[in-house]
Specification:
Layout: E1 8-12, E2 17-24, H1 28-36, H2 38-44, E3 46-47, E4 51-58, E5 65-72, E6 77-88, E7 92-99, E8 107-116, E9 119-127, H3 133-154, E10 164-171, H4 183-201, E11 205-211, E12 218-225, H5 228-236, H6 239-242, E13 248-254
Antiparallel strand pairs: 1-2, 2-9, 3-4, 4-5, 5-6, 6-7, 7-8, 8-9, 10-12, 10-13, 11-12
Length: 261
């Protein structure tokens, strides 16, 4: 199903600024987190045919430093960083912006989040492009894409109604694991983490991570797939299982699942 995006982004090349707006189907609190949380920014900021944000770190306070790293479709690495100028959660974020592809020229970015009946109106202002008309126009198109990705991140998924949720429990090779993990097992765990990170970014894995059980650490994930066959195929494809080192999944169907906005 195709839907028309309501995102607008306009470059004022005389004033050297960009103004953009988007209506997001989520609360201001959720949108604020999507713009600032390390584990969420990488889930939505980018696409395979443009670029991907691969890392985001932020000291979320006034004068705190933030940095994003990513890769273009050809594998070229890029980064952008700055400092927070103002934070009023969940209504406003203001920060400096210095991108390596823009020769590190400093600009100022401000998000304003306003609660609406359907979710949140995001208003973005990016200024400091005086005398750089081409750069201003390029950023305007870039912010149009970014806000569309954010819009899509919270958009209802038509396939959800026909999907099912499953709980995965990853049992380790022995109760003492990972305290007594071998170098080979640690390498497999790195592959396992990278595997689940991709599933999370794709929206298949809703949540995943280790559980600090007094009886021994184990892993948990909740996934959304078409059916039990797809769930078991997903488990079988985990590098931990394919390693043959004694890891084992218990896969259980969830009769119902409620996702918060």
């Amino acid at each position: 199903m195709n839907t028309r995006s309501a995102v607008q982004s306009v470059a004022d090349v005389v004033a050297g600024l960009i103004l953009a707006t988007a209506d997001i189907s989520a609360s201001p609190e959720r949108v604020f987190r999507a713009l600032t949380a390390s584990d969420e920014v990488v889930r939505w900021w980018g696409s395979d045919d443009v670029y991907r944000t691969t890392a985001w770190v932020a000291d979320l306070r006034v004068n705190g430093h933030w940095r994003a790293d990513g890769r273009q479709t050809d594998g070229t690495a890029f980064s952008v960083e700055g400092e927070f100028l103002a934070i009023d959660a969940p209504r406003k974020i203001a920060q400096t912006w210095k991108a390596d592809w823009d020769e590190g020229k400093p600009t100022t970015l401000t998000y304003r989040l306003e609660a609406t009946e359907g979710g949140t109106r995001v208003t973005l202002r990016h200024e400091g492009f005086q005398g750089r008309a081409d750069s201003c126009r390029s950023y305007a198109e870039g912010w149009r894409l970014v806000l569309q990705w954010l819009e899509r991140h919270f958009a209802p998924e038509p396939a959800v109604a026909s999907s099912r949720f499953f709980l995965f429990r990853l049992n380790p090779p022995r109760p003492a694991f990972p305290k007594d993990a071998t170098a080979q097992e640690l390498a497999v765990m790195q592959e396992h983490f990278a595997h689940w990170t991709k599933l999370s970014q794709a929206g298949t894995a809703i949540v995943y991570g280790p559980v600090d059980d007094p009886k021994g650490t184990w892993g948990v994930a909740i996934v959304r797939v078409a059916d039990e066959g797809a769930a078991r195929a997903l488990a079988a494809g985990d590098p931990a299982i394919r390693s043959g080192l004694g890891f084992r999944y218990d896969v259980s169907a969830m009769p119902q699942a409620l996702l918060g906005a």
